[in-house]
Design goal:
Blueprint: E1 4-5, E2 8-9, H1 11-35, E3 41-44, E4 47-54, E5 56-59, E6 63-66, H2 71-94, H3 98-121, E7 125-131, E8 135-137, H4 139-157, H5 159-166, H6 170-207
C-alpha cells in the first residue's frame, strides 16, 4: 500500500494515523482512570504517574483559570485545529518537505483532537504522566508538542524553506488570508450540503 504519492500523502494515511494517535491517548487515559487512584502519585525518580482530572484552562502552562465544563478550552482548541488545518493545506501547496509537514500536522491535530473530545464528551481534562518539574500531562499533549517540534524543524532545517520564509512579505500574508477564506467557504459549502443530505434522509425515514 502506497501512503505517499510523489511526496504527497494519501488522505487515508493521514486519517489512519490520526485515529491511531487518538486511540493511544484515549486507551491510556481509560486504563489510568481504572488502575490509578485519583490524586495518588507513584514516582520513579523524576518521572511517575498520577491520575487527575481538572476543569482549568491552560495556555502554555502560563495562564490558568477555572473553565467549568471546559467550554473556553473547547472553543480555543477548535479554533487552533482549524488554523492548523489551513496552515497545513497552505504549506503543502507552497513549501517543500511535504512528508515532514504531514507528520507535524498528524501529531498536532491528533493530540489536540483527542483533548477536544475529552473536553466536549466529559467536560474535564485527564492527565496522568508526571514529568520532573514540568507538571502532569497526557499522551495527547506529548503528541502536540512533538508535532510542533517537527513543524519548527521543517521550517529551520531546509534551505529552500528558510529562503521562502525570509522573503515573506505583506503580499504573501494576503495570499494566505485569501487562501484561508476560500478554504473556509469550501468547508462551509460542504457542511451545508452534508447537513441538507442528512435532513433529507431523516425526513424520508420519518415519512416512511
Amino acid at each position: 500500500m502506497k501512503f505517499f504519492d510523489d511526496g504527497k500523502p494519501r488522505w487515508y494515511f493521514i486519517l489512519l494515523m490520526i485515529i491511531l494517535l487518538f486511540g493511544v491517548d484515549q486507551v491510556s487515559k481509560h486504563f489510568a482512570s481504572k488502575i490509578l487512584t485519583q490524586g495518588i502519585s507513584y514516582k520513579f525518580g523524576g518521572f511517575g504517574v498520577k491520575y487527575i482530572t481538572h476543569q482549568k484552562f491552560y495556555f502554555f502552562k502560563l495562564i490558568v483559570f477555572d473553565d467549568p465544563g471546559k467550554i473556553i478550552s473547547s472553543i480555543v482548541v477548535s479554533v487552533v485545529l482549524l488554523c492548523i488545518l489551513l496552515v497545513y493545506r497552505f504549506l503543502m501547496l507552497h513549501f517543500p518537505q511535504r512528508r515532514m509537514f504531514t507528520w507535524a500536522f498528524i501529531f498536532c491535530f491528533g493530540g489536540l483532537f483527542s483533548n477536544l473530545v475529552d473536553n466536549i464528551h466529559l467536560g474535564y481534562a485527564r492527565d496522568f504522566i508526571v514529568f520532573w518539574k514540568l507538571g502532569i500531562t497526557n499522551f495527547a499533549d506529548i503528541f502536540y508538542w512533538v508535532g510542533l517540534a517537527l513543524f519548527l524543524l521543517c521550517l529551520m532545517s531546509n534551505p529552500q524553506t528558510r529562503k521562502k520564509l525570509n522573503r515573506l512579505s505583506g503580499s504573501d500574508v494576503k495570499i494566505f488570508l485569501k487562501f484561508s477564506l476560500d478554504e473556509l467557504k469550501n468547508l462551509i459549502s460542504f457542511l451545508k450540503k452534508l447537513f441538507a443530505k442528512i435532513t433529507k434522509r431523516n425526513s424520508h425515514f420519518t415519512k416512511t
